[in-house]
Write a structure and sequence with these properties.
Layout: E1 2-4, E2 9-13, E3 17-20, E4 25-28, H1 32-49, E5 56-61, E6 64-68, E7 71-72, E8 75-82, H2 85-91, E9 98-108, H3 120-125, H4 131-153, E10 158-169, E11 172-176, E12 184-187, H5 197-200, H6 206-218
Antiparallel strand pairs: 1-2, 2-6, 3-4, 5-6, 7-10, 8-9, 8-10, 10-11, 10-12
The structure holds guanosine-5'-monophosphate (5GP).
């Protein structure tokens, strides 16, 4: 949830409510908001320290962060290291099938249409992003992928895939939204998901999985 703070800043409040499958499934994951706020803040700080420009300004409370006000590009930018979720379903692959190289995909951010996959040419033809902006988005997403993969590997977690959103500010394109177990697939040493898939697939231990990710991110 976003609140306007000043002309240039927003306050993001992280809730415990969870949705999946385009909001057809709804529930509450107690403590999720706190985890997602702290994980996102830690990851934005880590990425900024490695030269990625983000909308993050500061953590304000357990469930709130202050961010720069940006104009969000209507794109979900997804980077995959293994086939999972919608990609595995689309091509009839087993969950976790390795990919030869990291795969970058774009979806149009549009709930009514179910966030359909969109190709780069369509992004440009529809004017959703300019050519230079799209290049920045692609380059940044791949670099964020390298950085996050290494970050989680050091903590015994495998980053399977993740979704990013970007926003415009002046002439710049900044990493925006959140980076949390809601927007990533993370597997532990046994290949057990510690992310929103536990909620999506009714695997149980959802709260515990989110807390474990927080423990490892901060630890
Ligand atoms: P998939 O396309 O396989 O469902 O998702 C790929 C990755 O992007 C997963 O880590 C998933 O959590 C994330 N993702 C894709 N779409 C959305 C979305 O609309 N909301 C959120 N929170 N994450 C998404």
């Amino acid at each position: 949830m976003l609140y306007r703070e000043g002309p240039d800043t927003l306050r993001v409040y992280f809730k415990d409510e969870a949705t999946a499958f385009n909001a057809q499934k709804r529930g509450v994951i107690p403590g999720k908001g706190v985890v997602n706020n702290k994980v996102s803040a830690a990851l934005f700080r880590y990425l900024e320290a490695h030269g990625i420009r983000t909308h993050f300004l500061e953590e304000v409370s357990e469930r709130e962060m202050r961010v720069r006000r940006v104009e969000i590009l209507p794109l979900e930018v997804i980077l995959r290291f293994r086939a999972a979720g919608s990609f595995a379903r689309r091509y009839g692959l087993g969950e976790g099938t390795p990919l030869k190289a990291p795969l970058l995909e774009f979806s149009l951010k549009n709930d009514a249409l179910g966030d359909p996959l969109i190709c780069e040419n369509a992004v440009l033809a529809l004017g959703l992003a300019g050519e230079e902006e799209l290049e920045t988005v692609k380059r940044t997403a791949l670099r964020v992928g390298e950085l996050l993969k290494a970050f989680f590997a050091e903590r015994g977690l495998e980053l399977v895939d993740f979704k990013l959103e970007f926003g415009r500010l002046g002439g710049e394109v900044l990493l925006a939204d959140e980076i949390s177990p809601d927007t990533m697939r993370l597997w532990d040493e046994k290949g057990e998901p510690l992310d929103k898939d536990r909620f999506r697939k009714d695997l149980g231990g959802v709260e515990e999985a989110y807390q474990e990710v927080l423990r490892r991110v901060l630890g």
